[in-house]
Each structure stands twice: as structure tokens, then as C-alpha cells.
């Protein structure tokens, strides 16, 4: 009887690949890792690699701080020079020491002049003429006016004060309590400053994304990351457009689990064990405890840190491609049969749009196949048991 069972199993191991199932077996995922489309036999197959989740991997991934705005998009830097721009309203006050000067009388030693910077960047000042203001600081403009008056006025002095400054404003819109154009102060303001001036976000930071449009460059980051990572809380620049959008972070749980679904984080952070638990865990009758996989597009710095530069270059030569945000496909393999997985899983962070897949045990397909071909119940049970031992 054992010989008959063994013969049936040998035939079934190849045939059971055609049995319907919920996604690939762990062995199929492992075999495709690191292979080129030509090796796999599919022209447009995605090239990826597998990384085992252990203490080192979990620590590297959790410690990595994404710098989407500052590094990836080149948007950042300090507050920059506060300069006058087109459309700005200025109050120029000219003082004279003499009683009967160009700008003074016996009763008043000063004359205030309100101007608006014209589209060509200039404005006219009496007895000075046309003055270029756009692109200059208040002090630079003051010195130019003062220089022009020294031969005309009696011991002149000048003070320039800013009024409305449309050239030094940013637009904040989207999921904020009050969309508005925000005028920047002279010391410079950061993303969180202008969002606060717009009434703050309408949703929690962990589900609010901030997009900064500056010229032809665009960068998006999670508000939670901006708050937690000061280097991401960049200084905004005049003319920036800032859009806040609500996008609840979700992950997808598939395979031999009790609930295949797309699930909201519903929390500030989420680890791998918590994510599996949100789907009510693996199906005890079908899941392969050694075959939990997390599919993700990861930042290149993390991929290189996990695989090494040589392996990364090898995979790119084979056809591994980045997505539109410059991230590369990686698959994390998690073995739930090890006791320390309960510790490692608590430190491995889940990210938005991750796909967690629990592969079914090979015995499931073998049992299906034996039943399809009409094998006696006893042989089917023995076949499943032998398959289970072989997989270990």
C-alpha cells in the first residue's frame, strides 16, 4: 500500500500544479526570485528578489527614514532670501533734517509714500525716479533710494516697510480646514507652519499626504513622516503650491487566511503581526506557516542596504524596474513556524499599499489532486501526510 501511495504521489506532484488554488505556492515564489523574464518564460515578468525577515532586516527597514521631499525630489533647503516681488505693496518713508526740504516742512520731518511694485519690477519715487524693487531685499532697495537722494535732500534717511506681499505667498488647499493663500514672513516658514495657518489638516497625520509643487518638481510625503522627521519639514518658498489629501493607509491580505480583503490601518503604526491579525490570521487547515510573504515597492536605499550594491546592480541588469516614484520591487519572506517570529514580526513595519500573502501548504493541492483523480480516501490521506513531511 505504501508503494502504491508513493507512486501516486510522484505522479501527483507534477499534476497538482494544474489544480485550482488561491495564488502561487511558496515554492513558485522562491523559484522566481532573482530570475530574468527570459528565465521565467514570460516576456514582461517583473524581476524581484526575496529577503528573509529576521532581526537585522526588521531593524534596517524600521530604522530607515524616507526623505521623499528633501532627497528624492530635491525640494528643501533653508528659508532663502526674503526679497521684494511683483505686486508687493510697500510703504517708503523719507526723512529729512532740514525744515524746508523736498520731503519735510517746519511741522513734519518725513513723507510717507505708498507704492505697488509693477509687472516690470519697478515703482516710481518722487525726485528719485524709477526704482527697481523686484528681486531686492528691503535693505538693498533702501540703499538705492538713499543713494539717489543724497545730492538732492538734506541729510536724508529712508525706511521701507512691507504691506501686502502677494509675491511671498503659498497656496494651501485640499484636506485642510481653510484653504488659503498664506503670506510668508521674512524669517521663512515650514510646511507645518503654513498648514497650521490654513486651519490644520482635516484628518489624522497618519492618513494625510502632503504634496508640494515647486516649478516643475513635485514631491509627496505622509504628514506623519514630516512631523516625525524634521528634515522633511522643509521650508516652503514663494509660489509653492501645497495640497493636503486624505488617503487612508491600507494593505491587502491574500491567500490562505481567514479573510482576503483590503484593510485600513486604523492606527498610527502597524506591524506585520498586527496586520495578519486584522485579517483574523491564517487558515489553520490550509496555510503554510513557512510561507508568509510581503510584497512591496521599496526605496532604493533600503533595497541596496538589504541586498548589497552588487546584487542590486545584477537585478537591474536582469530587468528589475522602478515604479514612478523610483522604488523597486522586493518580497519579504516571513517564517511563522519559528518562535522568534513573534518578536521579529512586532518590529517589522507594514506600509501603505503592501500586499501580504499567505501561501497554502503543498498538501492542500496534493489532496485536491488525489480527490480529483478518484484516489481512495486512505491513499489521499497518506499522500497529504507524506507531502507534509516532504515540505518540512
UniProtKB/TrEMBL annotation:
A Pfam family the protein falls into: SLBB
PROSITE patterns with a match to the protein in the record: PROKAR_LIPOPROTEIN (PS51257)
Domain Polysaccharide export protein N-terminal, chain residue ranges per copy: 82-161
Coiled-coil regions, chain positions: none
Sorted UniProt keywords: Signal
Record-linked InterPro entries: Poly_export, Poly_export_N, Soluble_ligand-bd
Domain Soluble ligand binding span(s) in chain numbering: 170-219
Gene Ontology terms for molecular function: polysaccharide transmembrane transporter activity
Cited PANTHER family: POLYSACCHARIDE EXPORT PROTEIN GFCE-RELATED
Protein name: Polysaccharide export outer membrane protein
Organism for this UniProt entry: Rhizobium wenxiniae
